[in-house]
Amino acid sequence: MAIVIEECKRTWRRLGVAREVADEMAADLESDLAVAAADGVAPAAVIGADVRSFAAAWATERGVVRPRLRLGMTAAAALVGAIPGVGFALFVAYGLSSEAMGEILGAGEYRVGNAGYQATLSVPEWLLLVLYALGAVFAYAGAVGAVAATLSWRFDPALSRTIRSLALALPVATAAAVGATIAFSSTQGFSTELAVVVADVVVAAAMFACGVALTRLHTVRRERERLTLRPA
Amino acid sequence: MLRMTALIDSHRQSQLLRGVLDVCLLAVIAEEPAYGYEMTKRLAARGLSAVGEGSIYPVLGRLERDGLVDTFRQASNGGPPRKYYRLTRRGSGALDKWSEEWRATRAGVDAVIGETTTRR
Predict the structure, then answer these.
(1) How far apart are CA A65 and CA A81, in angstroms?
(2) What distance in Å separates the CA atoms of residue A83 and residue B86, rounded to the nearest whole number?
(3) What does the alpha-carbon distance between residue A60 and residue A50 come to, in Å, rounded to a whole number?
(4) Which residues are paired to A110 by β-bridges?
(5) Domains and CATH numbers, chain B
(6) For chain A, does the N or the C end have fewer beta carbons within 10 angstroms?
(7) Which residues of B are less than 8 Å from A230 in CB distance?
C-alpha cells in the first residue's frame, strides 16, 4: 500500500498539484485502502492496476492540477505533426511535375529543351488543387493529432481546451506563416537559392510555431484563471 | 478462453456503468454520507461490483469540483478523521434530473431490446 501511495504522490508532484492538497488526497486514499485491506481487498481492486493514470485522473477531475505552459513542447509537436502534410504538398508543388518524376513514370509530355528531349508529367490544374487541399488537411490533422497525443501522454489538464482552441487558431497561424514567408521571400526577389529557400522554411516554421505557442499560452492562462476563480 | 470471455464481459459492464456512475454515486450519498471505499461496497452490495478499479475517485472529484457534493471529516475507529461526502442542494437537483434522464434512456433501450428479443 505504501508503494501505491508513494506512486500517487510522485504523480501529483509531477503534475504540479499543491503539496497540501496532495498530502490530503494521499491521507484520504491511505485511509480507504486500509479499510479495503482489512476486508481482504487489494489496492488494485479499488484504484485499478495503473496507479499513475488513476492518480492523474483523480487530480485532474478534482481540478487541482495547475496546467503548465509547455509552449515549446506544444509548438514542437504541432510542427512535427504537420511535416507529413507539408511534405506531401511540397512534393505536389515541386516533385510531381518534375522531369525526374516524368522519367520515373515513363509517361507524360515531351518537349524540346537545351539538353534534348525531356519528360514531364502533365497534371491537370483541378487535380493539383485537390492534392494541395489534401496536403493542407493532412498537415492540419497531423498538427492537432500530435499536440493531442503529446499533451495526453503528459496528462495535461488543459488538453481538451488546447485542442479546441488550436482547431480554430491553426488556419490563422498557417495563413500568418504563409503571409510572412511570401513577404520575406519578396525581399529576396523570390530567389530559389538554397540559403533563401532554407530561410523561407525557417520563417514559415517560426511563424507557425509562434501561432501555436500563443494559442497554448492563452488557453493555459484562461484555465489558470478558472482554477483561481473556483472556490476551494 | 473462458477467462478471456469473462474479462471482456467485465470490461463491457464496467464501460456501461461508467456513463451512469455519477448518478449512482449521488444516489448512494443521498441515502447517507459515505467515504470513497464505502461507496464501492454499497454499490457492490446492489450488484454493481464492476464499479471500482479507480473509477469512483475521479468521479467524486468531479462532483465535488462542480459543487454537487461537499465533504466533511469524521473520526474513524482508531484512525485519523475520514473524509465523507454529502449531497449539496445542487447535487440533489442534479440527482433528480439525471435519474429522469436515466429512466428515459432505459425505457428507450428496453423498448429496442424487447422488440428484438420478441422477434427472435
Answers:
(1) 27
(2) 51
(3) 16
(4) A119
(5) 2-118 (1.10.10.10)
(6) C
(7) 65
C-alpha cell at A192: 530559389
Q: Cβ contact (<8 Å) for B80 and A61?
A: no
pTM across the whole model: 0.60
B62/A62 touch (CB, cutoff 8 Å), yes or no? yes
B7–chain A Cβ distance below 8 A for any pair: no
Query: Exposure pattern of B44-67 as b/e (b: 16+ CB <10 Å)?
Result: eeeebbbbbbbbbbbbbbbbbbbe
Amino acid at B47: G
Cell numbers placing B13 = 459492464
Distance CA B47, CA B43 (A): 7
- The answer to whether residue A213 scores a pLDDT higher than 70 is yes
Provide CB contacts within 8 A for A166, sequence distance 6+.
A78, A143, A144, A147, A212, A215, A216
Using one digit for the tens of pLDDT, what is the confidence trace for A118-163?
556 677 788 888 888 898 899 999 999 999 999 988 878 889 899 9
**Contact between chains at A36 and B37 (C-beta distance less than 8 A):** yes
Tell me the chain A residues in contact with residue B82 when contact means C-beta distances shorter than 8 Å.
28, 31
CB neighbour list of residue A51: distance below 8 Å, 6 or more residues apart: A4, A7, A8, A11
Report chain B residues whose CB lies below 8 A from the CB of A31: 35, 76, 79-80, 82-83
Task: Look at phi and psi of residue A193 and say left if phi exceeds 0, alpha if psi is from -120 to 50, else beta.
Answer: beta
- Which residue, B107, B110, B64, is CA-closest to B85? B64
pLDDT digits (tens, 9 = 90+) for A63-88: 888 888 999 999 999 999 999 998 88
Query: Looking at this predicted complex, what is its ipTM?
Result: 0.78
Among the partner residues B37, B58, B80, nearest to A46 by beta-carbon distance: B37
How many other CB atoms are found less than 10 A from the CB of residue A139?
Answer: 23
A113 in reach of chain B (CB within 8 A): no
Q: CB-based contact (8 Å) between A36 and chain B?
A: yes
Helix axes B21-31, B56-65, angle to 10 degrees: 80
Q: Which of B105, B31, B103, B98 is nearest to B66 (CA)?
A: B98
